[in-house]
């Protein structure tokens, strides 16, 4: 079973507008150790980030993290979902969806355009603070794309995504969140997908809406991840290798399995901002974090399970991945859980 994690950047951005006491409460509810905010390389389980999103929304009465001057009161996303269910196809649903977000937000909104064979959602964002403006673009694209995919009952691949902001240090996250064809420092943030997708019928109804909302926001930002990127393909292939240091395939053999050359595969991964070693490390890090949070296995047992024959090597690797030792990660997580 895949164990996805979320980069610490998104955790820090999510709690940026909370007062100290509210921030402490939201992190505790989500089971995220507060000290990880000082570790930019750390990651948290996807379900913890989902719980944090909901906790921040309750603290602020704002489902958009306090980024927009108006605020998107709790329940707004559910109203938008209900409003688009009666649309016959994705074209009408997407236009109504974008109008809905524009009703609840003052400083950021999207418009649908047809450009050649592409449908393009372009964002206008007047938020003055740079970090907030970037996070607002990231969040609105995820909400719009996730809702589009759910309405159609399938993932709608994005052909290209351009961002108004500069390439951030965590840009490799974007290849899973959106697609692997990315542009930065663009005049406008926009996502492109095949125009023919607009004719897809809306396949959801009020009964499926209840389940979707119960599992949101994780059902929005995780279920419809881009699994077609080269890094995602490699990650899927490597899942079975976790737990056996001898079973990691040779890079050249993997390239052959994917019907490409090692040079081409290395170049494609580089374009996505990653490498074979990084993918291996992230996969093992994700599994280790899941075991530390959700199992009673000892640290040494976890080290062996994810392919480290030397426990001390695992301790060094985990410190490099997250900024803290595995025992400290588990201890502080347990302390936070006991305080809830």
Automatic annotation (TrEMBL):
InterPro entries attached to this UniProt entry: AraC-type_N, Homeodomain-like_sf, HTH_AraC, Tscrpt_reg_AraC-type_HTH
Species for this entry: Piscinibacter koreensis
Listed SUPFAM superfamilies: Homeodomain-like
One of the record's GO cellular component terms: cytosol
Stated name of the protein: AraC family transcriptional regulator
Chain ranges of the HTH araC/xylS-type domain: 232-332
Keywords: DNA-binding, Transcription, Transcription regulation
UniProt keyword Coiled coil present: no
Molecular-function annotations in GO: DNA-binding transcription factor activity; transcription cis-regulatory region binding
One Pfam family named in its UniProt record: Arabinose_bd
